[in-house]
Amino acid sequence: MSVRVTLKLATSLDGRIALASGESKWITGEEAREEGHRMRARHDAILVGIGTALQDDPELTVRLKGHDDQPQPLRVVLDTRLRLPPDSKLAATTGKGPVLVFCQPGADAEKRAQLEAAGVTVAEAILGDDGLDPGAVLSALAGAGVETLMIEGGGRVAGSFLYAEKVDAIAWFRAPILIGDDGAPGVGALHLEALRHAPKFTRTGLRAIGPDVLETYERA
Ligand SMILES: NC(=O)c1ccc[n+]([C@@H]2O[C@H](COP(=O)([O-])OP(=O)(O)OC[C@H]3O[C@@H](n4cnc5c(N)ncnc54)[C@H](OP(=O)(O)O)[C@@H]3O)[C@@H](O)[C@H]2O)c1
To answer: Does residue 153 have a cis bond before it (omega within 30 degrees)?
Structure first.
């Protein structure tokens, strides 16, 4: 079984996910953020890069009325060198639901032991062109029973999974603000040499959600 991967982005009109300072809370409005929680609840696993984990210290749980007794999705962090602090919200909330950190083979044993002591599962994945290999990560997740994965950023992770052709769908929340090119891009490098190689998607939905717009796409 392969994992169906949805990339979720919350950007400004010009496709930025954060200011140069890293500030990103909040680009989209309350309604869009609540829809983001409903989307989390529909996925087996949620994934972020360590850049996002360090900058935002997210919990990545589903926080919706009436969801308290429901299982939480598996929370996954790509963290080559195990930089995730044991007192981060992710590591500190393993009682609410599982957290899985992927690192490179042979990563620091002491950091690994600290995370494991906090209840985090640590697994190794081989390195690819830009961080941990997306195919290896997805194979491991499939082996753990994950069928649906939502990637919640940041830009580098979005770029590496798109470059590896591992993104099946996109949910793009766009807020009516502009950040400018000193902000952080929603999609990192794609290493394109010709426009014909650009990843292509077909739009499947377009709706207003509060002051924002949600566009959904499937890989063409
Ligand atoms: N508005 C939104 O929707 C939204 C959502 C999420 C994040 N953000 C913002 O995005 C910013 C963080 O984005 P970012 O691009 O700097 O960081 P990121 O994509 O969250 O994390 C990138 C880091 O993850 C590690 N990594 C391991 N395997 C990887 C792989 N296959 N592909 C990419 N990275 C991999 C690398 O660090 P190592 O080499 O140390 O492993 C890499 O530097 C923050 O400012 C955050 O606030 C915004």
So the answer is: no
b/e for 22-36, b at 16 or more Cβ within 10 A? eebeebbbeebbebb
Tell me the per-residue pLDDT of 30-62, one tens digit each, with 9 for 90 and over: 999 999 999 999 999 999 999 999 999 999 999
Tokens of 52: 């996002």
pLDDT tens for 93-150 read: 999 999 999 999 999 999 999 999 999 999 999 999 899 999 999 999 999 999 999 9
Closest-lying ligand 1 atom to the alpha carbon of residue 28: 1
pTM of structure: 0.98
Rounded to whole angstroms, the maximal C-alpha distance in the chain is 49
Instruction: Tell me which residues have their CB closer than 6 angstroms to ligand 1.
Output: 9-10, 17-18, 22, 24, 27, 48-52, 55-56, 78-81, 83, 130-132, 134, 152-157, 160, 184, 188
Average pLDDT of the chain?
97
Q: How far apart are CA 173 and CA 163, in angstroms?
A: 21
Burial environment of residue 99 by CB neighbours within 10 A (0 to 12, 13 to 18, 19 or more): buried
Where would I find the beta strands (DSSP E) of 12-50? Answer: 16-18, 45-49
Contact 78, 102 (CB under 8 A): yes
**Mutate which of 157, 166, 179 for ligand 1 pocket (most atoms within 8 A of beta carbon):** 157
> Which tokens sit at 108?
């620091």
Average pLDDT, integer, range 185-196? 97
